[in-house]
Specification:
The complex is a heterodimer of chains A (about 500) and B (about 500). Chain A has about 500 residues and is of the alpha+beta class. Chain A is built from 15 helices and 14 strands. The termini of chain A are far apart. Chain B has a domain of about 260 residues: Amidase signature (AS) domain (Amidase signature (AS) enzymes), CATH 3.90.1300.10. With about 500 residues, chain B is α/β, with parallel strands linked by helices. Chain B is built from 17 helices and 11 strands. In chain B, about 40% of the residues lie in helices and about 15% in strands. Classes of the chains: A alpha+beta (about 500), B alpha/beta (about 500). Chains A and B meet through loops of A and helix 10 of B.
């Protein structure tokens, strides 16, 4: 990026809430299914049907707000956002205009270098999702030029949280790191599946640039159609470059909505501000005002907020001294992070614990499709294994073998080690017997070593380990072997 | 066995008593009422759809339940359902071309409760399109005539239900009242037209005109019938977030008004209604006093702003409520080149002029830049109207006033919208305040150029949730005066002839 300019970025996220039923009716809230099978008079906007709010969705909103330190206002209400669109059953969307369920707050996030940042939130409000249109015959799937359109209302009326950030982000990297922290927090709270591929997390970015060192905001554009965090990063980078190009050429950035073209890697103009709708917001007379801050609910919800991903990230790096990469990888899965926590808290070596969880155990999870936290290798056993390795009771080869056996459900490693005599042999006298035998059995290799091909020592170490049934301390084997090989040369 | 003529004369209470006692079957009552409707509909046009099969099936279910030992509060009572209420499997049109062929896929809560209480739906009754109007003339699908003079309107918007009950094509009617749409046709058709407190009766399945004002209520020939209907349909409904979670007490029908203070609204001076009407209303107030009520003077200083306030709030809500009639999922669709043109042509062809007028007014009032000046201001005025009533009810238990400024008028007499809007002058303030109110017959007047005496209605209004007091007082007045039975509807004579 051109160092003369600073980017100013705000993110708007739409998050489908995880509830048993839709926002204003009893239809199931599930992704997919045969079109128009999860519908009723209410979510189809049939004449005479009325909305009744889902209290679970409101609770999810309050939990999210509290997790981000937002203010829960005394009063809140639902408003109607009026515009015509075929996949919107009532031709108005029940949303929140000037009195959202939560105000302010901030998302704390971290960058790859481990530094912590915050981005303020403007508000989080609750609304209903629309149906899904598909347009046939236009070639590009857009409504313009299509022969006919089909609408699936299964998604219509699904509770949707809109989370609007302040323009506190300064780069595509910050934007993605913000999104990741937001995503993990909502996942951790259990308020959403936050799956971009299923549309339960969707985001738009507001981007502007300004000369470095100035504080006035430039004209922003809103970027839509970003389908992954990767495309968010690419789209923002591309838009920043485009805006710098516009300004450098002496022109002005136009306030407009731009779509991200994933294939061509550029944004294109969708509509300008002049074409913006007048949504004619007004309080929905079918719904009564909410008093979210009233009663003991907020307090009990506040108390039930778990440790959040960014707090966990900070603790893993501070308390356990993990590097940013390992800490990020663990925090990326709330279950895995909790599992690691249980392992690490029972061992003296958090690094070894992290390596084991992110290494062998995660590999086995990938191979078998069973998440680590749900596997038969329970945290206490893994901690035991770390301790066995840490105390050099067993060597790493036996350790790897025991990981596989714990995964298969063979039980506690210490018991296996004791039952099968797998403890590492650190008795120099015993190892020396194996060393001598190996030297005697492989005179050609010994000769090669002494002729300067020192890398063949590894072969001899392998032979000695094999002869010890893998139990010999490999470091000690190497030490004794080399001493013997080198000693005889000089003698 | 009772003759058909005899059966259709009975009140809802009498029918329910007789069906429960098995002296007549619900099926016999249904057949008699359907025969009556078949004979009179060419003259009256109360119904947009008659439900012969549905009615007979429901009547037989009622008879089965009665035979099984159940006692149903409205056993076998023939019911007219205003055609803006959904009844599963029946055509539900709102009197509009845009819903002309639409068959409801579910039943409105209030209707379901009436059926569960034993009612038998005879038909879906005509109305001003989407309940917007005060004469029933705004229906796009049929003309309804006043049974007391067929050259005159039945009132509106619940004109079909009112005409059906007045002509004995049903014993009870369901109406909806947004600014007077039950009370005014009640007054025009010599009936009790009762609008309960906003939130008393579920609006689920009532096709919305103005959500914050719409309320379902009964049209009945006696206060007792209105009370039975009210008890059957009110109460909390989990499907309507605005329905109130308050117990519905059994109505205590009174025989006098002793211990009650009745407020007469200074701003509703009846002098301006002409000497004949003035005399009738003064006599009505005197009768209230004779029944033991203490008459007190109260003021509603903001009453004059009621109409203007109403004609911002109601159109604003309707402009949004009626958006869904877009040709995409149900109802009329006019095919066009693209979706935008389809919306425009469908709505242009589907809505009548009054509906379009209100959608335009409402859209304008909610527009960016005008919202604060119109909608927000109207909401503030609405609060003031409600406060006026609170103050008045500090001095009295009930407020009495005319229900309308004139008796039923002739067709096309109110062709400019404003004079039609003025018909709701006395009823709108109560709607804005959400208060329970009813009209009860209070006398007759033969209009200039008219051939028959036409009924007039006295409006009584009570504090929020004081329905029992309101109906109880109306019962005392009805019992003492019996104006409703002074003149029979003109059609009854012809049908008997």
């Amino acid at each position: 990026m051109n160092r003369q300019y600073e980017a100013v970025i705000g993110i708007e996220c739409h998050v489908e809430l995880k509830t048993a039923t839709k926002m204003f009716c009893g239809c199931r809230n599930e992704f997919g299914g045969e079109p128009n099978t999860k519908v009723c008079p209410v979510c189809l906007g049939m004449p005479g049907a009325l909305p009744v709010p889902n209290s679970r969705a409101i609770e999810h909103m309050l939990r999210a707000g509290l997790a981000f330190g937002a203010q829960i206002p005394a009063f809140s209400k639902f408003d109607r956002k009026n515009y015509f669109y075929p996949d919107m059953p009532k031709d108005y969307q029940i949303s929140q205009y000037d009195m959202p369920l939560t105000l302010g707050g901030e998302v704390t996030y971290w960058l790859e270098d481990g530094s912590m940042r915050t981005c303020r939130l403007t508000r989080i409000h609750l609304e209903e999702d629309t149906g899904k249109s598909s347009h046939a015959g236009s070639g590009d799937g857009r409504i313009a030029g299509s022969d006919y359109s089909l609408v699936d209302f299964n998604r219509a009326g699904v509770p949707l949280m809109e989370c609007v950030s302040e323009p506190d982000l300064r780069s595509a990297q910050e934007a993605v790191a913000y999104l990741e922290s937001l995503r993990l927090t909502l996942l951790q709270l259990g308020v959403s599946d936050v799956k971009m591929e299923e549309g339960s997390l969707r985001c738009d970015a507001n981007v502007s640039i300004r000369p470095m060192g100035t504080t006035q905001l430039g004209t922003k554009t809103e970027i839509k159609n970003m389908n992954s965090f990767r495309s968010v990063a690419r789209a923002i980078e591309s838009e920043i470059e485009r805006q710098i190009g516009v300004v450098e050429s002496g022109a002005r950035v136009v306030q407009e909505t731009r779509g991200w073209d994933e294939g061509r890697g550029v944004t294109h103009s969708m509509r300008s501000k002049e074409q913006a709708h007048d949504y004619r917001y007004f309080p929905d007379p079918d719904l009564v005002p909410l008093e979210p801050a009233t009663g003991a609910q907020v307090e009990s919800l506040q108390q039930a907020i778990p440790e959040l991903p960014w707090q966990r990230y900070e603790r893993f790096t501070a308390q356990y001294g993990l590097n940013p990469n390992s800490a990020s990888q663990l925090v990326a899965s709330p279950d895995l992070a909790e599992y690691f926590d249980r392992v690490a808290s029972q061992t003296r070596n958090p690094h070894a614990s992290a390596n084991l969880v992110l290494g062998d155990l995660s590999r086995l999870a990938n191979e078998t499709g069973v998440p680590v936290a749900q596997s038969q290798a329970v945290a206490a056993q893994v901690a035991e294994l770390v301790e066995l390795l840490e105390s050099k009771t067993i060597n790493s080869k036996i350790g790897k073998d025991l990981v596989e056996r714990m995964w298969r459900g063979e039980g506690a490693p210490r018991a296996i080690v004791e039952r099968e005599g797998l403890a590492q042999t650190s008795d120099a006298g015993a190892i020396e017997v194996f060393v001598n035998a190996a030297i005697a059995a492989h005179p050609k290799v010994v000769a090669d070593y002494r002729a300067g091909k020192t890398n063949v020592a590894g072969f001899l170490v392998g032979q000695i380990m094999k002869a010890s049934s893998g139990k010999a301390d490999p470091a000690l084997v190497r030490e004794l072997l080399l001493k013997k090989l080198d000693h005889n040369v000089s003698s | 066995m009772a003759s058909n003529g005899e059966i259709i004369e009975r009140s809802a209470a009498a029918i329910a008593r007789d069906v429960n006692a098995k002296s007549v079957s619900a099926r016999e009552v249904a057949d008699a009422t359907l025969a009556r409707a078949d004979a009179l509909e060419p003259q009256i046009g109360a119904y947009l759809t008659t439900l012969h099969d549905f009615a007979r099936r429901q009547a037989e279910r009622v008879d089965q339940r009665v035979r099984a030992g159940e006692r149903l509060p409205l056993a076998g009572v023939p019911l007219a359902v205003k055609d803006n209420m959904c009844l599963d499997g029946t055509r539900t049109t709102c009197g509009s071309k845009i819903l002309e062929g639409w068959v409801a896929p579910y039943t409105a809560t209030a209707v379901a409760r009436m059926l569960d209480a034993g009612c038998v739906p005879i038909g879906k009754a005509n109305l001003d399109e989407f309940a917007m109007g005060s004469s029933c003339e705004n229906s796009a699908l049929g003309l309804t005539r006043n049974p007391y003079d067929r050259e005159r309107v039945p009132g509106g918007s619940s004109g079909g239900s009112a005409a059906a009950v007045a002509a004995h094509e049903a014993a009870l009617g369901l109406g909806s009242d947004t600014g007077g749409s039950i009370r005014e046709p009640g007054a025009f058709c010599n009936l009790i037209g009762f609008k309960p407190t906003y939130g008393r009766v579920s609006r689920y399945g009532l096709i919305a005109f103005a959500s914050s004002l719409d309320q379902i209520g009964p049209l009945a020939r006696t206060v007792e019938d209105a009370a039975l209907a009210y008890e059957a349909m009110s109460g909390r409904d989990a499907m309507d977030a605005t329905s109130m979670d308050r117990p519905v007490e059994t109505v205590a029908l009174r025989d006098d008004l002793r211990g009650l203070r009745v407020g007469l609204v200074r701003e509703f001076d009846t002098d301006k209604l002409g000497s004949e009407l003035h005399a009738i209303y003064q006599r009505a107030y005197a009768e209230l006093a004779k029944l033991g009520a203490e008459i007190v003077d109260v003021s509603l200083p903001t009453a004059d702003y009621g109409l203007a306030t109403y004609y911002l709030i109601a159109p604003a809500e309707c402009s949004s409520n009626l958006s869904r009639f877009d040709g995409v999922r149900y109802g009329l669709r006019v095919d066009a080149a693209d979706v935008q043109a389809m919306y425009e042509q469908t709505r242009a062809a589907g809505f009548g002029p009054e509906v379009k007028r209100r959608i335009l007014i409402g859209t304008y009032a909610l527009s960016s830049g005008y919202y604060d000046a119109y909608y927000v201001r109207a909401q503030k005025a609405r609060t003031l109207v409600a406060r006026d009533f609170e103050t008045a009810f500090g001095r009295c238990d009930l407020v009495a006033s005319p229900a309308a400024s004139c008796p039923a008028f002739t067709f096309n007499a109110k062709s400019d919208p404003y004079s039609m809007y003025m018909m709701d002058y006395y009823t709108i303030p109560m709607s804005l305040a959400g208060l329970p109110a009813l009209s009860v017959p209070c006398g007759w007047v033969t209009p200039a150029g008219g051939n028959h005496p036409m009924p007039l209605g006295l409006q009584l209004c009570a504090p929020l949730f004081a329905e029992s007091l309101l109906l109880g007082a109306a019962h005392a007045y009805e019992r003492a005066t019996m104006y409703a039975v002074q003149h029979p509807p003109q059609v009854t004579l012809e049908a008997r002839a």
